[in-house]
């Protein structure tokens, strides 16, 4: 009887010592952050859905969007998603150099995406399609710009982690950070599916 | 003492097994490539539909874009974000379901309210109707 009591008394003590739980709660906490970020994008999508056809006699999506450029942009983000996946697989193998290599490739694809997007924005603004022109363009620049800003911060985070990994190696802390950035990066790709479907493709269809 | 050590052993094994299950949640080379190929196909179809002007009806094209986009989001969730009903004791799935409901309310509610606001805002003459963009 006393034996059983000591056993049941010792068990919770062991689980408290376990250092796995903080990591688990990091994943869940970061997931909750992503879900709240999802709500930001939902409000911006709702704004675009409401205002997206108010052109104020200005340019319409069919006049502005170059779908070939958008297709290339989508490919860049998709490539960066799978190369980040390869980085995670190398991280699990404990291969530091290979992880850094795939992270660098991911960063380059991310930069290519940003470069093409900035070129598109520059082109539109040059043609007079500025955010001030119509409600459609205000909603467009807010939604697509917020996504681009997320990608920018993702790249800054990626470079920071590359420095961390090259300095300290694939320690538990860096693995946790890489896991969080992985979720963030793939989440941005999910948001981009919504952007190219709702804004670009449905905009051009009319 | 012996019971103590075995319970430790069991707990360690359970912990180990758990972390293995966790690593499996990170995905394998095969699952990443599967997700990538599915994504490429699901991206190419809507772009082809719009750029090639394949379907005659606009409604059908928009419906196809929406459905394929939704499928691709699910593909990304499973193969890249490794969503399942078991991770974190099901709490990630709970958070996701909650978010999807809120997102649906925000989108449908905004469109519904603003549509009615638009149609009820002003009495329009037939001339004004014709000049609508």
Automatic annotation (TrEMBL), chain A:
Molecular function terms from GO: cytochrome bo3 ubiquinol oxidase activity; cytochrome-c oxidase activity
Stretches that traverse the bilayer: 30-50, 70-87, 99-119, 139-163, 184-205
Family annotation (InterPro entries): Cyt_c/ubiquinol_Oxase_su3, Cyt_c_oxidase-like_su3, Cyt_c_oxidase_su3-like_sf, Cyt_c_oxidase_su3_a-hlx, Cyt_c_ubiqinol_oxidase_su3, Ubiquinol_oxase_su3_dom
Residue ranges of every copy of the Heme-copper oxidase subunit III family profile domain listed in the record: 1-204
GO biological process: aerobic electron transport chain
UniProt keyword annotations, A-Z: Cell membrane, Electron transport, Membrane, Oxidoreductase, Transmembrane, Transmembrane helix, Transport
Localization per Swiss-Prot or TrEMBL: Cell membrane
Any one annotated GO CC term: plasma membrane
Topology relative to the membrane: Multi-pass membrane protein
Gene3D superfamilies, sorted: Cytochrome c oxidase, subunit III, four-helix bundle
CDD domains linked to this entry: Ubiquinol_oxidase_III (cd02863)
Sequence similarity: Belongs to the cytochrome c oxidase subunit 3 family.
Subunit comment: Heterooctamer of two A chains, two B chains, two C chains and two D chains.
Function: Cytochrome bo(3) ubiquinol terminal oxidase is the component of the aerobic respiratory chain of E.coli that predominates when cells are grown at high aeration. Has proton pump activity across the membrane in addition to electron transfer, pumping 2 protons/electron.
Identification of the protein by name: Cytochrome bo(3) ubiquinol oxidase subunit 3
TrEMBL record, chain B:
Membrane-spanning segments: 32-50, 62-81, 93-114
InterPro entries cross-referenced by the UniProt entry: Cyt_c_oxidase_su4_prok, Cyt_o_ubiqinol_oxidase_su4, Cytochrome_c_oxidase_bac_sub4
UniProt similarity note: Belongs to the cytochrome c oxidase bacterial subunit 4 family.
Source organism of this protein record: Rhizobium wenxiniae
Membrane topology: Multi-pass membrane protein
Subunit structure: Heterooctamer of two A chains, two B chains, two C chains and two D chains.
Region (Disordered), start-end ranges: 1-23
PANTHER family in the record: CYTOCHROME BO(3) UBIQUINOL OXIDASE SUBUNIT 4 (PTHR36835:SF1)
Protein name: Cytochrome bo(3) ubiquinol oxidase subunit 4
A family per Pfam: COX4_pro
